[in-house]
From TrEMBL:
<dbReference type="GO" id="GO:0005829">
    <property type="term" value="C:cytosol"/>
</dbReference>
<keyword id="KW-0030">Aminoacyl-tRNA synthetase</keyword>
<dbReference type="InterPro" id="IPR036621">
    <property type="entry name" value="Anticodon-bd_dom_sf"/>
</dbReference>
<feature type="binding site">
    <location>
        <begin position="325"/>
        <end position="328"/>
    </location>
    <ligand>
        <name>ATP</name>
    </ligand>
</feature>
<dbReference type="InterPro" id="IPR045864">
    <property type="entry name" value="aa-tRNA-synth_II/BPL/LPL"/>
</dbReference>
<feature type="binding site">
    <location>
        <begin position="321"/>
        <end position="325"/>
    </location>
    <ligand>
        <name>substrate</name>
    </ligand>
</feature>
<dbReference type="InterPro" id="IPR033731">
    <property type="entry name" value="GlyRS-like_core"/>
</dbReference>
<comment type="function">
    <text>Catalyzes the attachment of glycine to tRNA(Gly).</text>
</comment>
<keyword id="KW-0648">Protein biosynthesis</keyword>
<keyword id="KW-0963">Cytoplasm</keyword>
<feature type="binding site">
    <location>
        <begin position="211"/>
        <end position="215"/>
    </location>
    <ligand>
        <name>substrate</name>
    </ligand>
</feature>
<feature type="binding site">
    <location>
        <position position="94"/>
    </location>
    <ligand>
        <name>substrate</name>
    </ligand>
</feature>
<feature type="binding site">
    <location>
        <begin position="206"/>
        <end position="211"/>
    </location>
    <ligand>
        <name>ATP</name>
    </ligand>
</feature>
<dbReference type="GO" id="GO:0004820">
    <property type="term" value="F:glycine-tRNA ligase activity"/>
</dbReference>
<feature type="binding site">
    <location>
        <begin position="281"/>
        <end position="282"/>
    </location>
    <ligand>
        <name>ATP</name>
    </ligand>
</feature>
<dbReference type="GO" id="GO:0015966">
    <property type="term" value="P:diadenosine tetraphosphate biosynthetic process"/>
</dbReference>
<dbReference type="GO" id="GO:0004081">
    <property type="term" value="F:bis(5'-nucleosyl)-tetraphosphatase (asymmetrical) activity"/>
</dbReference>
Length: 451
């Protein structure tokens, strides 16, 4: 992980947040190449789950919502973590995580606060910082960031930064359904920032306090006999395998036990990824029943039911929710892509084997020597019309290949001595390092087929 972080920094993918001021704990900025990967990932998700799905539509709701939303959704009263302090060094920990790190077989999410306190005492679990075994009692720590809207700073002006994008979808269910005259079943997708004041953020971009989510709320009539939960779980796997090429051996599907389910859910499956620090949740697929629409209907006193045109009956739709973090997915993709390869004879390379559709640049164009600069530049401008291209003329060819490998550019095109006469260039593929000679008239067709 250390090597990956250093590599991503040096190549312009991810920088420490607020670095020139000594940084801000667990905040990360996406550099010129990181933002390209991130945007392409979001585009791939949007295409698969919104644009190209026959049922779904999209939305972009506010980050700050009326606080009644969070009261109704249960977040104000129930969205908290079990906080425990070390009495010796005053460091703060999530009690459930202390237990799970002590014994990875245990799921502390199903334990009560008392059970957690007793377990920590009985097992003499040590403070990870100072190794003492002396903790305070567990307290509930609210995870939502609270701030004030407007000029007054009293309770009436209190607002929260959203901890999930989902609620913005539920409160717009009626607007979206009516305006587009949607019939059940249909889903609403959204990509956007969420904020949680996590007690123990960490593991690079795996858990941060500011992050982005890609969430789909799929609404269906509870009398519908189709197994929509399996349908969406399957779509999630299709996306992982076919759209962003996550290897099957790097992830697994884990169903939640009954006592582990969130208060709103009747079934949940997590897709877990084999991160460098162990298996961790990547993507949750939850059956939320009609919990949210019902809560908002009661609290807002608005009719949020759907009138079934065939039976003429009002129904409160049920919901399946696949929800994933952009940065967590980025970590999975970048980690899987990072390779150090020994090329023999004292040569080695770092290569980012990113899926072609997520690489910051699809193609790099370079002249072999100065004499070919003009022709290479002309080819570069031409290709820019149809591809994401970069141009590099500094350093020897070997170094330039290594540079493109290091940022994951799938194809490097070299314009050389023979180009003017033969009207052809060399195209080198990143992973195999194989080179082929392609006629310039066929180049675009050749490249298009590759992507
Ligand atoms: N609307 C349901 C929901 O928010 P969640 O399991 O709390 O469910 C969904 O979050 C996904 O969001 C997670 O699977 C993870 O990918 C991402 N996520 C949650 N908290 C995160 C954090 N602090 N940092 C980065 N990603 C996070």
């Amino acid at each position: 992980m250390e090597k990956l972080i250093a590599h991503l920094k040096s190549q312009g993918f991810i920088f420490q947040g607020s670095e020139i001021y000594g940084g801000l704990a667990n905040s990360w900025d996406y550099g010129p190449l990181g933002v390209e990967v991130k945007n392409k990932l979001k585009q791939a998700w949007w295409n698969h789950f919104v644009r190209k799905n026959p049922y779904n539509i999209g939305l972009d709701s506010s980050i700050i919502l009326n606080s009644s939303v969070w009261k109704a959704s249960g977040h104000i009263d129930g969205f908290n973590d079990p906080l425990i302090d070390c009495k010796k060094c005053n460091s703060r920990w999530r009690a459930d995580k202390l237990i799970e790190e002590f014994n990875s077989e245990i799921n502390a999410g199903v334990m009560t606060e008392n059970q957690m306190e007793e377990f920590i005492k009985e097992q003499n679990i040590k403070c990870p910082k100072c190794q003492a075994c002396d903790f305070t009692q567990i307290r509930k720590f609210a995870l939502m960031f609270k701030t004030n809207q407007g000029v007054l700073e009293d309770e009436s002006s209190s607002v929260y930064l959203r901890p999930e994008t989902a609620q913005g979808i539920f409160i717009n269910f009626k607007n979206a359904q009516r305006s587009l005259r949607k019939k059940l079943p249909f889903g609403i997708g959204q990509i956007g920032k969420s904020f949680r004041n996590e007690i123990t953020p960490g593991n690079f971009i795996f858990r941060t306090r500011e992050f982005e989510q890609m969430e789909l709320e799929f609404f269906f009539n509870p009398s519908d006999e189709k197994d929509w939960f399996s349908y969406w779980l399957n779509e999630v796997e299709t996306f992982l395998q076919d759209k962003i090429q996550i290897n099957k051996e790097n992830y697994r599907v884990r169903s939640h036990e009954k006592d582990e389910l969130a208060h709103y859910s009747t079934a949940t499956s997590d897709i877990e990824f084999k991160f460098p620090f162990g298996w961790g949740e990547l993507w949750g697929v939850a059956h939320r029943g009609n919990f949210d629409l019902n809560a908002h209907q009661e609290a807002s006193k608005q009719d949020l039911t759907y009138l079934d045109p065939t039976t003429n009956q009002k129904v409160l739709p049920h919901v399946i929710e696949p929800s994933v973090g952009v940065e967590r997915m980025m970590l999975a993709i970048l980690w899987q892509a990072y390779h150090e390869e020994d090329l023999g004879e004292g040569n080695s390379r770092i290569v980012m084997k990113l899926p072609y559709n997520l690489a910051p640049y699809q193609i790099a164009v370079m002249p072999l020597q100065k004499q070919q600069n003009d022709q290479a530049l002309a080819l570069y401008s031409n290709l820019l019309n149809n591809f994401d291209v970069t141009y590099d003329e500094t350093g020897n060819v070997g170094k330039r290949y290594r540079r493109q490998d290091a940022i994951g550019t799938p194809f490097v095109i070299t314009v050389d001595f023979d180009t003017p006469e033969t009207n052809s260039v060399t195209v080198r593929e990143r992973d195999s390092m194989e080179q082929v000679r392609i006629n310039l008239d066929e180049l675009e067709t050749y490249l298009k087929a590759k992507f």
